[in-house]
Amino acid sequence: MTRHPARITRRTVLTGGVATAVLAGCGSSGGGTAATTPVGSAAGNPTDRTLIALFKQGTVLVGRPQRITFGIADGTGALITGGPSALDLELKLGGASIGRVRADRHREGLQRAYYPFEIVPAKTGFYSVSGTVSGHQVDAAFGVDAKVALPQVGQALPVFDTPTTGNHRGVDPICSRNPPCPLHDVNARDLLASHKPMALLVSTPAFCQVDICGPVLELLIAERSRYGARVGLVHAEVYRDGKAAAANPGGAPVAPALEALGLDFEPCLFIVGADGKVRMRLDNIFDAVELRQALEAATA
Question: Which pTM was predicted?
Answer without folding.
Answer: 0.86
